[in-house]
Amino acid sequence: MISTxxxxxxxxxxxxLEGPSRDVQALLSQGHSPEEIAYGIxxxxxxxxxxxxxxxRRAHFHEEKEMLEQAEQLQTRFVCPDDPxxxxxxLDRAFGFAASGxxxxxxxxxxxxxxxxxxxxxxxxxxAAVANSVAVVGTRAVSAYGQRATEEICRPLAENQxxxxxxxxxxxxxxxxxTALEAGGCTVAVAAHGAGRCYPAKNAPLFxxxxxxxxxxxxxxxxxxxxxxxxxxxxxxxxxxxxxxxxVIEAGWRSGALNTLAxxxxxxxxxxxxxGPILGAGSLGCHDKIKRGDAQMVVSAADIxxxxxxxxxxxxxxxxxxxxxxxPIQQLSRNELKVFDSLPCRSDHNRTAAQIAESxxxxxxxxxxxxxxxxxxxxxxxxxxxxxxxxxEK
Length: 394
Prior knowledge:
It is a single chain. This protein has 394 residues and is α/β, with parallel strands linked by helices. It has three domains: 1-62, no CATH class; 106-323, Rossmann fold, CATH 3.40.50; 334-389, Orthogonal Bundle (Arc Repressor Mutant, subunit A), CATH 1.10.10. It has 18 helices and twelve strands. The strands form two sheets. The chain has a nine-stranded mixed β-sheet with strand order 1-2-6-5-4-3-7-8-9, sandwiched between helices. Helix 8 packs parallel to helix 9, helix 11 (229-241) packs across helix 12 (257-266) and helix 16 packs across helix 17 (353-360). The termini are far apart. Residues 309-320 have low confidence and may be disordered.
C-alpha cells in the first residue's frame, strides 16, 4: 500500500504533464522519486530541466485529493507504477524495446514512445485483464465483410482466453468488444478521454457492460478530460503496448487503425492485417502493409495465436503517400495538434495564447510559436491578442 503523498505525486504528474513525458521518465530512471519531481515542478526548480517549462501552465495544481474523489464517484480508480495492478510486464517490455535502440521503426523514437505515469481504470484488475491479450482495430465505416471478419476472428480468441483490446470507437472496435463479451471473454477499452466523458456517446452502454462484465475501461487521462485528436493518436500506443500483437481489419490508406499498427511495430509486438475485398479502397491499408512485409497476413484466430510474440518490421510506401495526401490537419505534429484542438471554432469565443497554453498543457512560448506557424498555414485566425480556428469557406 503506497502512501497518500506518493499517490498524490503520481496524480500530480499525470495531470500537469498530460500524456507521456520522456523527461519525467528520465528523471525517474535517475533515481528521483515522484514526490521530488512533483515538488521540483511545482516550485520551478532548475534541476527538473525542461519538465518545468512543459508544465508551467499547470504547475499550480493542488487538487489531487479532489481529483481522486471525482474518480471514485465515477467508479474509477487511479493506478500508478507503485500499485500491484500496474501492468508492468507489458509496459516494460513494449517501451523497453522502444528505448533499446534496436528498432529501425520511427515510432520507437517518437516523443511519446514512453510509458504513462498513471492510468485511470474502471472494472476488473488491469494486469490480469491484459495478461493474455491481442489488440483488434479497424475502420469506423465497417462493411458487412468487415463485421463478419471481426466476429469470426474475435469469437475464437475470446473462447481461447485471449482478451480483446481495442479503442472503443464505432465500427470494428465496437464489434470486437461486443463479440468478446458475447463469447464470455474479457475485453479492454482504451479511451482517449477521461472518466465522466463518453466518446462515442453511442457506446456508453457498451463501456458500462465492459466494466461490469469482467473487462476494463482504461485511460491515461484524468477525469473529465475531453477527447481530442492528439489524444487518440497517443492513446493508440497504449492499445498496442497492452497487447501481445495488433490485428487490423479493414483499414484504408489513411485509417487511424494503421497508426496503432505502426505502434505495434515500434514497440516490438507482432503486427497483423486481415486482407479484404479488392474491389474497393476499404482494405487498401491492410493490403499495403501485407505486401510490404509490415504486417503478417492473418485470416483466422488460429493464425493470430500462432504468430503472437513474433516481431514485425516497418516501411512506408511513397506512392500511396502521393496518391492519398493527408489534409493540412493530418499533417500537423503532435504539439501542433494540441494547440489546434485547444482553439475555439467560433470567433466570438476567441482565446488568448495563455488560455490555449493551459488547455494544451504547453508553455506559453511554445504555444505562441506554434500559433504563428498555424497562422502561416492558414489554419488559425488572430484578432489582437486572441486566436481562433479558421473555418473552411462554404
